[in-house]
Amino acid sequence: MRVLFVTSEVAGLYKRGGLADVSYSLPVALSKKGIRVAIAMPFYETISSKGAQCVGQLAIDYDRRRELVFIFRMMLPHSHIPVYLFRHPLFDSYDAKDIVERFAFFSKAVAQLYLYSAETLGGPYDVVHCNDWHTALVPLLLGEQGKIGYRERGTIQSTLVKTVLTIHNLLYTGETGASIGLKLGLPRTLFHPFMTPLGRAVRLLEEGFVYADVISTVSPTYATELMRGIHGAHMPALMKKRGDAIIGILNGIDEDVWDPKTDVALPVSYDKQTVHSKKLFIKQALRKAVKLEDIPVPLFGFVGRLEARQKGVDLILKSVEKLDPDTYQLVILGTGNKKLVHRLEALVARHKNIVFIHTFDERLARRIYAGADALLVPSKFEPCGLTQMIAMRYGTVPVVRKTGGLADSVIDGKTGFVFGPYTSAALTNAMNRFISLYTKSPKVFQTMIDRVMRVDFSWRNQADQYVSMYKKLME
Ligand code: ADP
Q1: What is the pLDDT of residues 291-324, one digit of tens each?
Q2: Where do the domains of the chain lie, and which CATH numbers do they carry?
Q3: Dihedrals phi, psi of 293, to nearest 5 degrees
Q4: Which residue ranges have their beta carbon within 6 Å of ligand 1?
Q5: What atom in ligand 1 is closest to the CA of residue 334?
Q6: What is the spatial distance between Cα 190 and Cα 139, in angstroms, rounded to a whole number?
């Protein structure tokens, strides 16, 4: 079976968050299962051209102009998976105001290249697997452009390929003006516009819901939440119209990428057997690096995007005010919302037991996963969440809210601490439970570390679920 994985980011090439991790590790896991997989993504300016070979070019009509897109091929680092990179000035940078329109254009480039020259992409494929709003227009474009292809050239290629759309986060829908249809040269009637104060708009993700053959998401609980309308009432209505359900498959993590035994970011390596003798040294080195005092208290960590609507940073800000500052330390690593950045900066100015590092730093993230005693993931919602899984692989106890993939990956009192209500009181309580475990029951704490390190978050089983989904689709 052959699968083309279309995505906006891939770890090792370009990373903004968890989608990049999944876009690396899922194709690797699929290829281990015998699936022949390739990846298509934009060729951002920051991606090194080393090893990239130009394999073709393509003229695409967009916004009443004919644009030339160049296609490069390289190997995904540490794998045998080909990556097809699309080069055009509009794909140079992700940080553009009109990023939604740019991804609509990227999707057209992928669909058109697939339909008219699949071999340039190493195809044809059985399944085109799209991810989030960025590439959600591909199913529509494959169908519509395919029809044009049929009329013009007598090909029936488009009817052969099946499409999957995976929702990694419903918060981002790719909303843009309805004129995008015109820019892409598509009939208006294909879209599902709605009114906004600024005029008619469309959401690329919703067009994907309509046109993709199968819709999946990244944890069973998030799938249930979506179907119950917890994250937007339109979702259940849409799925009802389609007459099917969203498939929830929990993400995994790549065990080679995240491995305390081989992680070069750590001052010493360790595994399940040596964790207890090595972790304190790593914690001390981390404290030194982030300028925290070396005192016998537990160290909490937080690694993530400072997304005010999702990640629960507001809860952290309030909770720490209620905790005794002499009983714990906290290191926060993150970038994002400016207001949260200011509030965090003000917080650390008042608390010498808390540090905030405002940057995107994978090496430091790894040292926090390994050096902290507990990792906070107090998200309001979390489609899957990878940081709690990575922390557990490094023997660090997750303190999470019961939502989405967090609920599916942490068991309260056994492999971490889980709290229900989205309140600072509930988070404070969970943090106090951890502090008490750490200080009063070191033996039980060590047993918990042993237990979290034994949890299997590899892709071995999860990838099988994707394979069955593809197989079912092809039947
Ligand atoms: P999301 O996809 O919502 O950002 P996930 O938990 O699924 O959240 O994945 C987050 C990924 O991004 C993890 O690999 C995490 O280590 C990484 N990450 C997030 N913020 C930072 C940061 N400031 N520095 C380094 N890595 C980060």
Answers
A1: 999 999 999 999 999 999 999 999 999 999 999 9
A2: 2-252+460-474 (3.40.50.2000), 275-456 (3.40.50.2000)
A3: -65, 150
A4: 17-19, 21, 303-305, 333-335, 360-362, 365, 384-387
A5: 23
A6: 12
